[in-house]
Specification:
Length: 323
């Protein structure tokens, strides 16, 4: 199945993992080949009356013909998680993929997996694959409370003491510097979690003198340095002024206003949806993992799929040449 293909599917079963996280088993109409760890599934959703797409990481390879995803209902959701939580077993779905922007490279001397909250989803699949391959690895899993540890019991039963959990309620935090220092030379780290965790991992990795290509990220684009608020985007060349609401991404607002955009991941990873910043009247909250910290500091470009502005607006130019 090519990335642009859509396939009918049925929601086979639902199970609550935590009060706000559900595991969904999806049966495609035609079984596909097993998906490599780090893969995600596209799911067609309805946001109000508007069709849209959301991506969810696969919890395993789907070798039994079923795709398993875990969806957290977010209080500041743009509508995708609310839609998914409203589904019942037997619901008809349209899916695409699986696709992979977060591939696991086998054969390294060691692996460090770091998950925060719902970021456990792609690392669950990686941990199972590494365990099956007999590879040396550790999985460090942080959450606010014990009840937020979705999938921890399942993982512990499968991978044993390679899993270590860290809870805010116990005042335990992951020591990234120590974890990286314990990783074998030439080893790789894979991180998925809140923005702050990914930034801290990036800093610790660089301070350890590790090669940049050895650190891989997956982001779900739900948080940044600042609280989410509405802002205005101006495009002088197109004579457009567009308001981006609190529960809408800048990319979605541009598309709704008829601005031609190129995009792929919608998670701040691929960089295809970037635009040129002409002027920032507010503070640009860069929430992507595509640009380096030095590039973000210049405020020359931003990823419209996840990044936002607070305390004002922004003036941009795009690749769109339509009048």
């Amino acid at each position: 199945m090519t990335p642009t293909d859509w396939l009918p599917a049925r929601l086979r079963a639902i199970r609550a993992l935590t009060p706000d996280i559900r595991l969904l088993e999806i049966a495609p109409s035609a079984p596909g080949t097993p998906a490599p760890p780090g893969s995600h599934l596209g799911v067609a959703v309805m946001i109000g009356e508007r069709p849209d797409t959301r991506s969810y990481s696969l919890l395993d390879s789907g070798a039994d013909g079923l795709y398993r995803i875990a969806v957290k209902r977010l209080p500041d959701s743009r509508g995708g998680s609310a839609y998914m939580h409203g589904l019942e077993p037997g619901a008809r779905l349209s899916i695409s993929g699986p696709r992979n922007h977060f591939g696991l490279t086998l054969g390294r001397p060691g692996y460090l997996l770091v998950a925060g909250g719902i970021g456990i989803t792609p690392l669950h699949a990686m941990a199972l694959a590494l365990h099956q391959a007999g590879a040396p690895f550790r999985l460090l899993y942080a959450a606010r409370t014990r009840q937020d540890l979705a999938l921890a019991d399942d993982l512990r039963a499968r991978i044993g003491d390679r899993l270590e959990t860290f809870l805010d309620e116990d005042h335990r935090r992951i020591d990234l510097h120590a974890a990286i220092a314990a990783l074998a030379p030439g080893g790789e780290a894979y991180v998925c979690g809140p923005f702050g965790m990914m930034e801290a991992a990036r800093r610790a990795w660089a301070e350890a003198g590790r090669p940049a290509q050895g650190l891989r990220f997956e982001t779900f684009g739900t948080g940044g340095r600042h609280a989410t608020e509405p802002f205005t985007v101006r495009i002088p060349r197109l004579s457009k002024e567009i308001v981006v609401s609190r529960n809408q991404t800048m990319l979605e607002a541009l598309e709704a206003a008829g601005v031609g955009m190129i995009h792929d991941c919608r998670r701040g990873e691929c960089g295809l949806c970037t635009v040129k910043i002409l002027e920032a009247e507010g503070t640009v909250d860069h929430r992507d993992v595509f640009f380096s910290e030095a590039q973000k500091a210049t405020n020359a470009q931003l990823c419209t799929c996840v990044s936002r502005v607070v305390g004002g607006g922004i003036t941009i130019d795009t690749a769109d040449r339509a009048v």
